[in-house]
Design goal:
2 strands; two-stranded antiparallel sheet; 16 helices; globular
């Protein structure tokens, strides 16, 4: 049951989330934000718990998905009503602080009531307060910082906040707001998150995390990449899965011959991923991701810089860097150079698999590598991805060794 829940069932639920986003939009992603210790604990949804407890017959399961989605949507619309209870204006904050404070207090109490203060409820409270500030013009990154500072660790799982704590958080949040916390002007110069990534890439302490790839090649008991593609992508669309599997077979043949990683090689795989008549070309305009929160610029040397970065994925005795760090870095290079019009996340995943395969390493699980999103300008994200690769690789080695030991006995 545990293996099924963490494997096939979770992949089905992830694929359902993807399909709902594709059909209805990104607002749907909270349909699994369940009470207490569910899929994503501490949320407002009562009609869904987790794959293990919520997936039964097809009819019952789909009914639960529909009910959870409607429940999430109703909650969002209910929150907007509370957001707009008072007409707020950040430029007039000095005369409106009491209204901002009252709104924040009411929202905290609504989250308390809706979540029941189970495990992790304060995470959703942070999210709601951030949405509230963003709704009234506070820059999102500023809003997150103000909310975190106002709460300051005073809310805890399985414990409802007392009146004093609620009032204090609301008051501090209102007092911390300033007119300058608003979003930038529409005529402000566009940010280039590719340049931000290149700065993070240069400064990241890649050598600080131990390299699980240093112990040499490993052949897993099962092919984690293939199984994840069949379960997750296959649930989205069989053609999508088949394209990825064809690209995966091709990249492993390229890895076996020690091919040089560059855009041309990626494009040959991407032809199968996207099912295009020929290898797709490098983009010729700025690209956007994460609902346009990130913008990746383009210049006459962008492709050349991309190839230069990918070249660093090969082992170099003169400037040694661990295998898992090189694999993670190449994966993020693809994410933030964003070379293709579509399918960049899949291309990034294939890149990581290729860098490992070129040195004889494969994984028996990849879930941590495909279910998360990274920010171009977050200094900690590269090291987090390296750790995730190390976790999967260490577990692959352990299970392979356990199987070998059992067979010998």
């Amino acid at each position: 049951m545990s293996a099924w829940s963490q494997g096939e069932a979770e992949s089905w639920a992830d694929a359902m989330s993807f399909a709902l986003v594709q059909h209805y939009g990104r607002w749907t992603v909270g349909w699994r934000w369940s009470h207490d210790e569910g899929d994503f604990g501490g949320g407002p949804v009562g009609n869904w718990c987790c794959p293990r407890d919520s997936i039964t017959t097809p009819e019952e399961t789909l009914a639960r998905v529909g009910a959870a989605l409607r429940e999430w949507r109703e909650w969002l619309e209910y929150l907007v009503g509370w957001f707009e209870a008072y007409p707020l204006d950040l430029s007039d904050i000095e005369s409106q602080r009491i209204l901002w404070e009252r709104s924040a207090r009411n929202l905290i109490l609504q989250v308390v009531d809706r979540t029941g203060c189970g495990s992790g409820w304060h995470g959703h409270c942070r999210q709601v307060l951030t949405w509230f500030l963003d709704h009234w013009g506070v820059a999102p990154e500023v809003a997150r910082g103000l909310v975190d500072e106002a709460i300051g660790g005073r809310f805890h799982s399985w414990t409802g906040p007392d009146t004093v704590a609620v009032d204090d958080v609301a008051e501090q949040l209102a007092l911390s707001l300033q007119p300058a916390d608003g979003r930038g002007r529409a005529d402000a110069p566009a940010q280039d998150h590719l340049q931000r990534w290149l700065a993070v890439r240069e400064s990241a302490p890649w050598h600080e995390i131990p390299d699980s790839g240093a112990d040499g090649p490993v052949v897993p008991l099962r092919d984690g990449a293939v199984e994840d593609i069949r379960a997750f992508d296959g649930a989205i669309a069989p053609a999508r899965a088949q394209g990825l599997l064809s690209a995966l077979e091709m990249l492993r043949a390229d890895a076996a011959r020690g091919a040089r990683l560059d855009f041309t090689l990626l494009s040959s795989w991407q032809q199968h991923v996207l099912d295009t008549p020929g290898p797709p070309q490098f983009r010729n305009a700025p690209a956007f991701a994460k609902r346009s929160r990130e913008r990746y610029g383009i210049g006459p040397d962008t492709r050349a810089r991309f190839d230069a970065c990918l070249a660093g994925s090969a082992s170099d005795a003169g400037r040694p860097l661990g295998l898992t760090a090189r694999a993670a870095r190449a994966c993020l290079d693809v994410c933030f150079f964003h070379p293709f019009e579509d399918g960049n996340a899949r291309s990034a995943f294939l890149t990581l698999v290729f860098v490992l395969a070129r040195e004889g390493v494969a994984l028996d699980g990849v879930s941590l590598l495909r279910r998360i999103s990274f920010e171009a300008d977050a200094p900690q994200d590269p090291l987090i991805l390296v750790r995730y690769v190390n976790i999967h690789l260490a577990e692959t080695r352990r299970r392979t060794a356990d199987s070998t030991g059992s067979a010998q006995r």
